[in-house]
Amino acid sequence: MPRKGMRRTRRHFVDVTTLALELGISPRRVQQLTHAGILKRLRPGVYWLEGNLIFYEVYLKKFKERKGYTPWAGFHDDYLGGWVRTR
Question: Is 19 exposed, middle or buried (CB count within 10 Å of its CB: 0-12, 13-18, 19+)?
């Protein structure tokens, strides 16, 4: 009978370099996000892979919402007085 819930085996945890490659950011940025409380660390140098991928996606979504960034519509620039198209 299989166990329910997340299995905490060794394959679910990675080092900082592997996590940085998966997220597409630098290892230093991973450390900064961990210090800010966005990413979780089991112990120094060991990170939870699946959870941190989700935490980073949520962080990016909230960051883009706070900045008013929508890739298909652009944002309103008060200095220029109009809508600015984004990529």
Answer: buried
